[in-house]
Amino acid sequence: MSRSRNRRKTVSAEPTAFDLARDELFQHVIRCDVIGASPDHQSDWFNDTMQYMTERWHELSPKQLTELRTLGERFAQPARSAAAPVSPDVTADAGDEAASDEESLNTVSA
């Protein structure tokens, strides 16, 4: 005998208009080499592109269009390095420690 199992069908959610518009904007950013462009050029490009996106995606509210632009501008920024910059005060303190360690070694070996 075989048991009948209640299998749930996985229902994939349809992407929203905002999701589709975001993906389209990111594709435009990549295709148009906006990443690495000067801030003035990026600003002009986003002004023109957001005007187009407003006409193309009339379903989006003004708030969503503002959020879309913010996401696009963040996407267009170069990646940040993981290393935090070292301040001059930290390196000076490290130099003092190295000097005192060196003095300690000289004292021990003498």
Report what the structure shows.
This protein is an all-alpha fold and 110 residues long. The protein has a domain at 15-78. Helices cover 63% and strands 0% of the residues.
Structural class: mainly alpha
Order of helices and strands: HHHH
Mean pLDDT: 81
Helicity, in percent?
55-70%
Computed CA radius of gyration, to the nearest angstrom: 28 Å
Percentage of β-strand residues: under 5%
Q: Count the beta strands.
A: 0
- Summarize the biggest pleated sheet: none
Q: Quick one: overall form? A: flat
Query: How many helical elements?
Result: 4
Which residues sit in consecutive blocks of at least 5 with pLDDT less than 50? none
How many angstroms separate the termini?
90 Å
Structure keywords:
single chain; 110 residues; mainly alpha; 4 helices; 63% helix; flat
Record the SSE blueprint.
Blueprint: H1 17-31, H2 39-56, H3 62-75, H4 88-109
Helix pairs in contact: 1-3, 2-3
Please outline what is shown here.
With 110 residues, the protein is mainly alpha-helical.
